[in-house]
Amino acid sequence: MKNITMATKYNLLDTSELNKDFSLYRQGRTDYLLTRELPVILEKHDRSKRILDYGCGAGLSTRFLKSLGLNVVGVDISKAVLDLARKNDLNGHYLQINEQNDLPFNKSEFKIVVSTFVLFAIPTLNEIIAVFKRINRVLDKDGVFIAVTGSTEMYKRDWLSLEVKQFPQNNNPKSGDACKIKLTEVDLVLEDYFWTDEDYEQVAKQSNFVIANKTYPLGKDEDGIAWKDEKKFPPYVFYEFKKTGV
Questions:
Q1: Is the dihedral angle over the CA atoms 142, 78, 120, 129 positive or is it negative?
Q2: Total domain count for the chain?
Q3: Residue 219 is part of which domain span?
Q4: Angstrom distance (rounded) from CA 61 to CA 94
Q5: Which of 3, 31, 185, 225 falls 20 to 30 Å from 15 in CA-CA distance?
Q6: What integer pLDDT is reported at residue 47 of this predicted model?
Q7: Sheet holding 51-54, edge to edge
Q8: DSSP code per residue over 75-140
Q9: CA pseudo-torsion sign 131, 97, 147, 134
Q10: How confident is the model at residue 28 (pLDDT cuts 50, 70, 90)?
Q11: Domain of 230: which CATH number?
């Protein structure tokens, strides 16, 4: 079993098994809820400009967004995973960023910024706030920051392709506590951090955002998937953050 610690911040999924093809998000996995819901959310917003994929890792999320016909640039702090992203996507646009510095883009350059499974890999609220402030600068005043992260249900239910109950640290976590998830399809254990809706509301307020909408996806019969607790509890939450104009 592979064990990846997320204490170095952001989602550094650099295993080839996870990043060969975006189809790993699809049928037969809990992640299918992402590929089912994210296009619906994106359709509500102006997709005419280039989209920023913040914390793209090895490009799995970037390639999925590109499959929707979007013009996407992916950024991450890890050179190793970006090298893999470029290898898997020869025509892709990927940039390395420094977590201590601002994003290398103009003010208000993007209408949409997307971040998938990144926020719960950041260990402190102050660091999350710093990320939000960087994104705020490059986001258009009428733009949207769409963040997909774990729900408060994630660490206590029975999921189709995630195992969480075997880890004692997942019992009744508090804000900022480290939790673990095993991705059963690839036998990989990840360490994340537990954050609540209230935490993200605090982050939004301190970085001149407001939560405009929240989506809690559930498994449906028409998905054609033998869901477990996904039919009753959402493993993920989709936040749509809008700038407050300050």
A1: negative
A2: 1
A3: 2-243
A4: 12
A5: 225
A6: 92
A7: 94-96, 72-76, 51-54, 110-116, 139-150, 236-243, 209-215
A8: EES-HHHHHHHHHH-TT--EEE--TTS--SS-TT-EEEEEEES-GGG---HHHHHHHHHHHHHHEE
A9: positive
A10: confident
A11: 3.40.50.150
